[in-house]
Amino acid sequence: MPPLFNRRSEIGLSPSLPPAPLALAELLVRVRQTLADRFPESYWVVAEIADLTLPRFDGAHCYLVLTDQHVTGRGAQLKAQARATIWSQRFQQLAPAFEEQTGQSLRLGLKVMLRVKVTFHEQYGLSLDVLAIDPTYTVGELARQRLLTIKKLEAKGLLDRQKELSLALGPQRLAVISSPTAAGFQDFVHQLGESPYDFAVALFPASMQGEDSPASIRAALDLIRPRRQQFDAVIIIRGGGSKTDLLAFDDYGLSAAVGSFPVPVLTGIGHERDEAVIDLAAHLSLKTPTAVAAFLTERLARLDAVFSGYAGRIRELAAAQVQDANDYLTRLARYTQQAAQGQLDQQRDALQQRIRAATVAPRAQLRQQFRQLVRIRHALPRAAGRALAGQQRRLRKFGRLLEQRFRRLHRRRREQLLRQRYHVQLLAERVLHRAELRLAHATAYRLPEAPAPIVQLLGSDGQALPLEAATPGTEVLLRLPEADLQARITARQPSPAPALPL
């Protein structure tokens, strides 16, 4: 048999004959024979299902991809992966037995212990044939994961946080997370409807089974959180199911969301086995949705009974207080009547005394008033004469004062008028003098640049009249370049010397 690999020629030696080429099929046949000789038996392996293709019809096979991830001593991440096959007849035997003992079917992410045999095919490569599955390992692994989830919640204080919340005395505003078509939700609503109390139920639909169940319930909790002031409690219910369906309620993320929720959460999942992790994190856990409805109804019934007891006690206390008040009012009425009668007698005696005093006092007062009127009647004429004489003296004195004041004011006003007239005359002379100066300056002063206008003086006969012949009172005609003007000479003045304007 030729070697499995080509050898290099040694240094200094001449190359030998070229090695004979090896067909790929023959090489892979040798690999298969070597693996069969080296691994003739089957082996138990622990791996995680990374990919899964279940049979779609009878007679089909189940294909898996198994992975194993672990950290080496040096801290490196090591990952191993291999394809595995469960043939059709063996799958029909292994799958039902595994689901019956573990409560769940094969799914992604599940860690399992398999008995496999190493096979190699020239066309399909290395593969593992699954011969058996140990369900006890998977059950132990699920229990271990559940215990780890509980420890993580306990370390973060999420197992007791819901217990510290106080549930309302009469929780009637309920936010229910369930599937709208679930029988458990229908039983819950029916049970509440039969109670004599009014419940406001708001349904937040969610998927209650399958791999997406935890995410769906958490999404419903996120919808309730902004409206938490509108609800007294959150109810998570479903109508039972297989062990596989109930594994979703052991999810750490869902349990942490329930444990940290700010509103009390009540669960009624409908399981018969041990409590799910979500039950441990909730405020109160009950077995079934009907039990949750019964608990709420009984809580309101107890509250109603307490209120009824309080109402009876209040009625008793009120009746006792009314009786005490009635007795007090009776005593007060008797005391009031006696006091009123005593005051009435006192007022009657006082009135009699006043009546007797009223018959004597008015007569004395009348006589005194009469004497005062007589004195006033005799004194009135003398007082009127004295008052008249005094008024006449005041009037004469006031007349003399008015006369003196009038004379002083007349003299003062006359002096003011004289001074004003003098000032007016003085101002008029000054204004007239300034006007004469300006007129004289205006008639004598001519601008050197502009030529003087040509004025022709004509007499009444239309002939030119010299200036020397123009005497005051003469009617003349001034012929200007633009027009002719009729004028009369009123006075003559000598031509003053030209001077600068003031």
TrEMBL record:
Primary localisation category: cytoplasm
UniProt GO molecular function: exodeoxyribonuclease VII activity; nucleic acid binding
CDD domains: ExoVII_LU_OBF
Domain called OB-fold nucleic acid binding: residue spans: 24-133
EC number, UniProt record: 3.1.11.6
Family statement: Belongs to the XseA family.
Name the UniProt record assigns to this protein: Exodeoxyribonuclease 7 large subunit
Naturally occurring in which organism (per UniProt): Hymenobacter jejuensis
Lineage: Bacteria, Pseudomonadati, Bacteroidota, Cytophagia, Cytophagales
